[in-house]
Amino acid sequence: MRVLITVSGLSHEYNLAQKAAKIVSKELYNLDIYNEIVELKKLEKLDGVLKYIEAFDLVYIISYGGIGENGILQSILESYNIPYTGCSPTVSTVCRDKYYFSKLAKTLNITTPKTFKIDGLMSIDNIEKLIISNQMRFPLVIKPRFLSGSSHGVKKVNCLQDFQKNLPNLLKIDTHLVVQEYIEGNDYIVAAIFQEDEFKVGVSRARINKDIDFKERYNSGKDMFIVDGLPEKINSKIKLYTQIILDYYEIDGTCYLDFRVSGEDVYFIELGTMYGLSENSVVPTLAKKFGMSLTDLIKSDIYRGLTRRKGRCGY
Q1: Which class is domain 114-181?
Q2: Domain 184-302, architecture per CATH
Q3: Residue 135 pLDDT more than 80?
Q4: Domain with CATH 3.40.50.20 in the chain
Q5: d(C-alpha 6, C-alpha 126), whole Å
Q6: Which residues form a coiled coil (predicted)?
Q7: Strand 155-157 relative to strand 34-39: parallel, antiparallel, unpaired?
């Protein structure tokens, strides 16, 4: 087998994608699977890659933002009938839009925070009117709508002046933003892991909430997630919400889901189709609960990519 590992992503997370690619490459090497890494930081490079892409049996997509997470690369690979890891183009596109995905989740009777969208052309006066019309009050959470992961760029603001002060820096990340009511509570992160042809769902509680600080969250030196001794009632509700979402959206690849828990209330926040591969990331952490190593995860991604394409295109 020959595997092409593609690396793409936004500038502030690109180094994480590069590290993840090296991890996958090493694992594939240990499995005696030939692989090459190609960086798609610039979209123009894709033209050159497409000239020889059919020489590979599968593309292993690693992307934290960019064309590998928003469905573009997946669509191109579909047109070439090349198997790839991760979710389908449609799923990737829908999940990348935090506002649209949240809006759809409400139709499933899944509780989500009050949410509205803004862009860089809106005045602070118009933003204030939206806060009032949506019956929201401070503190609020602002986050990029499209162009960031689930931690970077998440900002809690305590008043309108604080909102206005942070707006310019947030608009540098993404000119389209999502504003949500702040839910006091704890972050719970779910890993939905494909093991052969079924999902295994694991639940964890974050030691540091995503709205606290991006660097502190990843550089605290502690285990990032608590996986044992979680309240059974909360676990059950989160797993129920997760299964509804996985089924409705026809999620077809390993992913993670973010929830905020306040007392006994569970709020769905978002779903990420690209998971972290470092040892302390949530999917590898929860995979251990099912007896799966990092090697097993990568093998599962490949198996899923190959069998999915076999079902569609006769591979």
Answers
A1: alpha beta
A2: 2-Layer Sandwich (3.30)
A3: yes
A4: 2-84
A5: 42
A6: none
A7: unpaired
**Dihedral sign, Cα of residue 299, residue 301, residue 306, residue 311:** positive
pLDDT tens track for 40-66 = 977 678 888 999 999 999 999 999 988
pLDDT of residue 12: 82
Query: Please, what is the average pLDDT of the chain?
Result: 92
Residue 259 and residue 257: Cα distance in Å, rounded?
A: 7
Predicted TM-score (pTM) of this structure: 0.93
CATH number given to 2-84: 3.40.50.20
Region class of 219: left (phi > 0), else alpha (psi between -120 and 50), else beta = alpha
Burial class (CB in 10 A: 0-12, 13-18, 19+), 23: middle
Q: How many CB atoms lie within 10 A of CB 162?
A: 16
Q: What is the pLDDT of residue 84?
A: 97
Q: How far apart are CA 43 and CA 237, in angstroms?
A: 41
Residue 242, SS3 per DSSP: helix
